[in-house]
Amino acid sequence: MLQSQMIKLVESRLRRHNLPVALELWNGQAFKLVDEPAVKVRINRPNALLHLANPSLGKLAKSYVERDIDLTGTTRDIIRLGESLCDGVVCGDKKGSRFLSWWRHSKPADRKNISYHYDVSNDFYGLWLDARRVYSCAYFRTPDDTLDVAQEQKLEHICRKLHLKPGERFLDIGCGWGGLILWAAERHGVRAAGITLSQNQYEYVRQQIRARGLDGQVEVHLMDYRDVPETEPFDKIASVGMFEHVGRANLGKYFAKIQRLLKPGGLVMNHGITAASRASGGLGSGISEFIDEYVFPGGELVHVSEVIDSLSAQGLECWDAECLRPHYARTLWHWVERLEAHAAEAKRLVGEEKFRIWQIYMAGSAHAFERGWMSLFQILAGKPLADGRLPYPLTREHVYA
């Protein structure tokens, strides 16, 4: 009796929203709700009815990952269906104590969280990332740029903003698979060092350094940013796609560490995802909870104004801030398409569940960037000299030449 009532409730909700969807139950019963459905929802287990009757985006994503439901259709149509079904409310409030935030970002916790996400399989990431395996927002000069071209443009964009010069000491905090440090060394002649908490990434970068003959010019360390020695400061520092793991409670310590690692007159580029508004602590409609459980344990988003305020409080001066929100939406859709094109091999490498996690997470993130539910900023800051000067070009022509 209760089950039949739940089925009617789900059917009624789908009809009320006039969604282009077909519904099929575990027993083969089908409901044709529109003449030309774009998405087919198959309910594999009765408990999924609860998530469809009173849905949130997080609940629907969890049901898909755990195979309580199957979804057929283009990923873009599926994501749009989810938003329409959940009435879209996606900006979450700030929540949680500063102590809880600090505890979630202790060194052991961060190492465990990073390993969970990045130590899945180098070959898995290699299926859908660009040739340099850059796992962060690309930079598209034209809509027709390939992912490989756009990622190289992003690496060069960062190097030019940092005004890298031959012989300078350059640190990349959270170096991933080494794309930036290898590019900076080969194209700009710097002495580069990268740090990561991922064992898989560390081993891959070491192999790349040897293969490219960069021993003595490029080095990589399996190390927490809090443990980087301060005995020999760096001329330039980058942090790309790592900032989201720092945590609101640790922002001051993070930028204080960077300030101590920089030479006077040095520059830092902080590239990271930010919250949509000052009042937001991430994404609502259960999305943040889904990401925390299945994708990025311990991830936290802050508004760009908090980033600038925090670095300023530690003696770093903001010189440039650039929003790359549309670039990340485009990047993520490239990743989704490439992942789906290699679906069979991806599932062989990591299994059905992890394939679904990355598929729905990246597609949902692409949609969120398109809708303005979250953003991404590159912030360039410097450590002024004793007399207050910061030796940087008067214009940005060197970036776009």
From TrEMBL:
Gene Ontology biological-process annotations: methylation
GO molecular function: methyltransferase activity
EC top class, as a word: transferase
Residue span, DUF7884 domain: 17-80
Pfam short name (any one): CMAS
InterPro entries, per the entry: CFA/CMAS, CMAS, DUF7884, SAM-dependent_MTases_sf
Record key words, sorted: Lipid metabolism, Methyltransferase, S-adenosyl-L-methionine, Transferase
Residues making up the signal peptide according to the UniProt record: none
Domain of life (superkingdom): Bacteria
EC number per UniProt: 2.1.1.-
Entry keyword Lipid metabolism: yes
Segments forming a coiled coil: none
Family indicated by similarity: Belongs to the CFA/CMAS family.
Protein name in UniProt: Class I SAM-dependent methyltransferase
Originating species: Thiobacter aerophilum
Taxonomic lineage from the root: Bacteria, Pseudomonadati, Pseudomonadota, Betaproteobacteria, Burkholderiales
